[in-house]
Amino acid sequence: GAGVSQSPRYKVTKRGQDVALRCDPISGHVSLYWYRQALGQGPEFLTYFNYEAQQDKSGLPNDRFSAERPEGSISTLTIQRTEQRDSAMYRCASSLAGQGRYNEQFFGPGTRLTVL
Amino acid sequence: GQNIDQPTEMTATEGAIVQINCTYQTSGFNGLFWYQQHAGEAPTFLSYNVLDGLEEKGRFSSFLSRSKGYSYLLLKELQMKDSASYLCAVSLTSNDYKLSFGAGTTVTVRA
């Protein structure tokens, strides 16, 4: 079956512009996660949804970052007034939370964001 | 903050065994995951440990000692396709939704 998909795969924007990154989780996965991954580093947790409810947004760096998942499926991560330090790979993951003895997260291919 | 340490790089020969160590000091612990990430690709799940001891899964095994804050991933009969980054991740919450990752260990397999 289809895995997690993300769009766009690459995004180049100018400083000060807003960007919206989309994540389409695996069908039936109730949990969805956003991570940021710098080159040579592991993914860094940003936020987590259970169905449409944003359960934890403690990893969002500041109030320029927001995320939503209005119908409990597709999610959008929005970065307002982008800055050069926002340049990174943004990854989405999804999982069948609460089933089985552990919660395996399936990662998407990511969106490479470059802020000029 | 969370502290998860693993070596930056390791090199081994095809057919050999490599052990990747991970030590952690975190605010919570609900289990430890290992993920594999090939260059330019997404991380993929390898193993999970919640109790002390060894979990074996084909050529890959993972060990956990909660009292020592220590885990290792053992890769046996190395193949060229095992060249990748291996990420240690601690689950901080009861349903494993919040993972704290180490920086990853890049393993290079030489012929």
Q: What would your notes on this structure say?
A:
The complex is a heterodimer of chains A (116) and B (111). By secondary structure, chain A is mainly β. Chain A contains no helices and eleven strands. Chain A has strands spanning 5-7, 10-13, 19-24, 31-37, 44-50, 53-56, 65-68, 75-79, 88-95, 106-107, 111-115. In chain A, strands 2, 4, 5, 6, 9, 10 and 11 form a seven-stranded mixed sheet that branches. In chain A, strands 1-3-8-7 form a four-stranded antiparallel sheet, with no helix packed on it. In chain A, 34% of the residues are buried. Chain B is mainly beta and 111 residues long. Helices cover 0% and strands 57% of the residues of chain B. In chain B, the strands form two sheets. In chain B, strands 2, 4, 5, 9, 10 and 11 form a six-stranded mixed sheet that branches. Chain B has a five-stranded antiparallel sheet with strand order 1-3-8-7-6, with no helix packed on it. In chain B, a hairpin with a 7-residue loop joins β9 and β10 (99-101). The mean pLDDT of chain B is 96. Classes of the chains: A mainly beta (116), B mainly beta (111). The A-B interface holds A 4, 31, 33, 40-45, 48, 50, 55-56, 91, 97-98, 101-110 and B 4, 31, 33, 41-45, 48, 50, 87, 89, 91, 95-104.
